Amino acid sequence: MRPMSARKRIRVALVGCGTVGGATARILIQDKELLLRRSGVEIEVAALVDKSFDHARSLGLPEELFCSGIEPVLADPSLDAVIELAGGVEFPRTLIMRALDAGKHVITANKALLALHGPELFARARQQGLTIGFEASCAGGIPVIRAITDGLLANEIDAVYGILNGTSNYILTEMIHKGSSYADALEQAQKIGLAEADPSLDVQGGDTAHKIAIMSSLAFGISPDFAGIPVSGIDDLDEQDVLTGRDLGYVVKLLAVAHRHPQGVAMWVGPAFISREHPLAWVEGPFNAVSIYGHAVGHTLFYGRGAGGDPTASAVISDVLGLALGITPTIFAHTGFWPDRNGGATQLPAGSEELRFYLRIMAEDKPGVLAAISTILAREQISIASLHQNEQARGQELIPVVITTHTCTRQALDRAVQEINALEITGKEVVLLPIVDEHPEKIS
Ligand code: HSE
């Protein structure tokens, strides 16, 4: 047997000892021998930094590592890397800049920070000859950053489609299978400890948008204008549409989409219908999945746990090992798709991508209603693909008219919907959901 290459050592400090930080520290310490055996790397945890150590104590982490400030860490000349798992934006931004200035590599799971300030942080790391590892920032334990920056390096990426928020996917799964309302499904998600007390970032699409911004910057070499990504969430989704979509052969998912077109990359986040046949349709409960389409490889699908302490710790630790083994520094230093070094593709204006759509219009049940609606759609050159009106609803003041369209832009549809909403014969606001139903291999 060939001898194993020389053992490598890396000394790290963790800042933030919450769910992910605690799990990372526990695995680094308890599984030190396993990690050494598998990677040839000996990881030494130098300090655990936090304001409170209740959680760290509950995990049995060694008290002698507890440190209540970052200064000793930044001043430690023998420290190789700072692992930032504190959360927030301003504190970690300053911490990471200071760690880089102090000559430490950085590993972070902070998606909001990278979505908003990634290019600036990458540029500083590059100036310093250092690396930022961020595998844990997107899709938790799924190694999707390494897939884009290493495994799929031979490809021009055509599209990235993701289910990137476990909380939202769990809620939608409850709504689809049990016919639950959004409110009941959210309550259930909170009861099992999945949804936060304030679930806004998850259910309103912000967390998903951060993740697709990061992945798109690597896949397409763009510096996404984060504010220019249209984002909607699942929090005003009506179970009526979830069930109608199911009857039409669709499953509703909170999708993140980044799709390359000849003019640029379209990006959006929101609830959408996908065909039951689409591989993303069977991603259920708290799981995440990312579909990546490369010009050579075709369709690939990455699936796994996108949240939680241990799965996210798995990604953080792979960055620690990647750093020690020289894998992530080599990728960071030599590859050309980083937004701080590559002009990359153009981001298309919001709503300019051609998609199919589902509309539910609450309308009076009388002559001329469909004519009025179809006239408005026709004026915007929007072609109707199917139309459904349930006879059972007869006699109600307003009945649901469900339309699916052929492809059109969201911009054109929004203009039409504004006019339909203003008709005297229609009631509540029109419900509008994109439909993504292409076969994975026929995406472009
Ligand atoms: N709260 C996220 C989720 C995980 O539910 O998927 C962290 O981004």
UniProtKB/TrEMBL annotation:
Instruction: Name the catalysed reactions.
Output: L-homoserine + NADP(+) = L-aspartate 4-semialdehyde + NADPH + H(+)
PROSITE patterns referenced in this protein's UniProt entry, alphabetically: ACT, HOMOSER_DHGENASE
Which one Pfam family would you cite for this protein? NAD_binding_3
Give all residue intervals belonging to the ACT domain: 358-438
Q: Which InterPro entries match?
A: ACT-like_dom_sf, ACT_dom, Asp/hSer_DH_NAD-bd, HDH, HDH_cat, HDH_CS, NAD(P)-bd_dom_sf
**What keywords tag this UniProt record?**
Amino-acid biosynthesis, Methionine biosynthesis, NADP, Oxidoreductase, Threonine biosynthesis
An example of a Gene Ontology BP annotation on this entry? methionine biosynthetic process
Positions bound to NADPH = 111
Query: Which Gene Ontology terms cover its molecular function?
Result: homoserine dehydrogenase activity; NADP binding
PANTHER family assigned to the protein according to its UniProt record, in alphabetical order = HOMOSERINE DEHYDROGENASE (PTHR43331:SF1)
Instruction: Supply the name of the protein.
Output: Homoserine dehydrogenase
Q: Which organism is it from?
A: Alkalispirochaeta sphaeroplastigenens
